[in-house]
Amino acid sequence: MVDDTVPNGGVGDEVQSPFEQALAAYQQGGSAEELLPMFLDIVRSSPNHGAAWTCLCWLQLLTSRPLAALKSGRMAVRLSPQDPQARLNLSLAMLETSTKGVREQIQKIQKVLTMAPDLKDDLQRSMVDGLERRGDWQALRKVRTWLFP
Questions:
Q1: Number of domains comprising the chain
Q2: Which of 37, 40, 86, 132 is deepest in the core (most CB within 10 A)?
Q3: DSSP code of 80?
Q4: Tell me: the pLDDT tens digits for 115-138?
């Protein structure tokens, strides 16, 4: 998942947005099934929120909804083309639906990681999280070996 939250703090801080609340719930161990409707509502109310589409795609993948994830992943990449997590999610949805173009997505992720190596740790943490939540996720295991041999 994407982590672009604003830290919670002391007096005078603004209330978290629905996206920040949903992301925090995920990070605190909330189930993908429970959070899916929240992210659906977020993208309906903010259709140009790339990070929300990325998270929605991830949740759809975790809950074995690859066709829905493919649609969400395409939207996430369209809105955030330099986001390696969006491309990772799209790659996974493509693999799980036997859609062509996975290699191109993997190459674009590799290019972004070469130009911004600090994103590598976030992507690796995301993969670990995905495998902890969905241990049988063969597509993720495959993509992980391609990106981090």
A1: 1
A2: 86
A3: -
A4: 998 999 999 999 999 999 999 999
Whether residue 9 is contained in a domain is answered as no
Residue located via tokens 């925090």? 24
CB 34 within 8 A of CB 4: no
d(CA 92, CA 31): 19
pLDDT digits (tens, 9 = 90+) for 3-39: 544 444 444 456 689 999 999 999 999 999 999 999 9
pLDDT exceeds cutoff 70 at 49: yes
Cα 121 to its chain centre, rounded Å, is: 14
Domain CATH code at residue 93: 1.25.40.10
Which residue has tokens 């809105």? Answer: 79
For residue 36, is it within any domain? yes
Distance (Å, whole) CA 149 – CA 145: 5
Among 64, 31, 29, which residue's Cα sits nearest to residue 140? 64
The parent domain of residue 64 ranges over 18-147
pLDDT score for 16: 85
In this prediction, residues 33-59 reach a mean pLDDT of 97
Residue type, 25: A
